[in-house]
Request: fold
Amino acid sequence: MASSIRVRATANGDITEVQALIQHPMDSGFVKDAKGELIPAHFIQELKFEYNGKDVFVADWGPAVSKDPYVKFSFKGANKGDDLKISWTDNKGASDTTIAKIS
Amino acid sequence: MMKRPAAILLGSAFVALAAFAFAATRVVAADKIDPAADAKAFQNFFFQKFPNVKREDFVNGPYSMNEDMKRQWQEKEEFPPYEFALDAGKEMFATPFKNGRTYADCFPNGGIGIRQNYPYFDEKEGKVVTLELALNRCREANGEAPYSYVKDEMASLTAYMAFTSRGKPMDIRIPDDPRALEAFENGKRYFYARRGQMNFSCASCHVQSPGERIRAEILAPALGILNALPIYRSEWSGMGTTSRRFITCNSQTRAVPLEPQADEYRDVEYFLSYVANGLPISGPGARP
Amino acid sequence: MKWSLPLAMLLLLSLAPAARAATEADFKAAYAAAEAASREATGLRNQWTTTVASLAAAKKAADGGDFDGAIAAAKEAQALAKASIFQANSEKEAWKAMEIR
Reply:
């Protein structure tokens, strides 16, 4: 099954720029479906980017983040060819992980 | 008592004269439908109104009208929100029907790189056929249930087909058939006619006010407005087809929408696509 | 002076219908008229969402026994429907004023 995480990490000198697009419904729990029933809350609670065993970016999310969230950030100290680990867990206990190479 | 009939006569004569004068200033050979002339006038109108916008940029809608929005959009295009629908569409397109045939069997060139030719006028049927309509007919001809015209599956399919045509100039043909000319004219009429309690026509926003705001949104120019479809619309948190956009536009002006592939919608799609001939396909797109 | 009393009575009588509460029959008549106009608008493929909403509000009010409110809503629906019919007919020519030439 294809990963829910698409990531691109580019090193420019000392700074690595990371972009990620995550496929997730991010249901807030406040929206009703066509039948008028509430769609239960289903959203990513923690999103983590790890480099060399250390967290370089951690997000604590809630129902306010929209569907298919997009994240962009930069961090220092990584090199081309290194691995970047991305993982998320949601409020239903589901999770996904992927490893991307910094190019 | 003597003055009143005279006054009424004078008044009505004045009204008649004014109406005549008004009509006279707008006299054009109304009998001859000339799509080529209409397209030229349409394009020139926008090129002259926005001399700093590159011609091919009009297909980017509001982003061609606002630098800040354009910058944000270009950044997002590296990881566009329609990516998932596009991948899904590619997979759907390649998946055979239960009877073993595929979408490729229904379309010229296997359905690849042909989106810029839609909609087209089907001379056998005597009507405009849109890409969505053609896709559903392909499904039904192969024993599959049709997709909703406004929801995800159809949008994913057309997203993929649009993607294979990206960059290709819009290329709509109007055969020398009075019915085709009539369809074009119908579409043009629909585009300019006011509707809904808000009394807006498509032109009210997209010809009179592109680049300006309606509430918090920047209005797109009508030129090339269909070139980016289907779109991932942040407002919808999802993909939408041309049909979906026509329908929501109607409700926004407080007009009850028509059926997704109503004649009027097919015709206005024909008109809008034709007058954008030459401008590149930019779909699938992302909009606020 | 002598004609003022019958005139006053005439005036009172003409005002009277507005003073008494509307009946279901009054509502049915108003609703039928509104519905007819609404159907004509649909036939012209130029129906307004607000017409539909007003008609629904009229029916809802009537179901709740509020015939005065129901008639007001029905009259509004009829007015909106008529306006949409006028719009459909006038736009047959008026669209040309917006056309890029």
Remarks:
- Residues 32-288 of chain B form a domain with the Cytochrome Bc1 Complex; Chain D, domain 2 fold (CATH 1.10.760.10).
- The first strand of chain B starts at residue 120 and ends at 122.
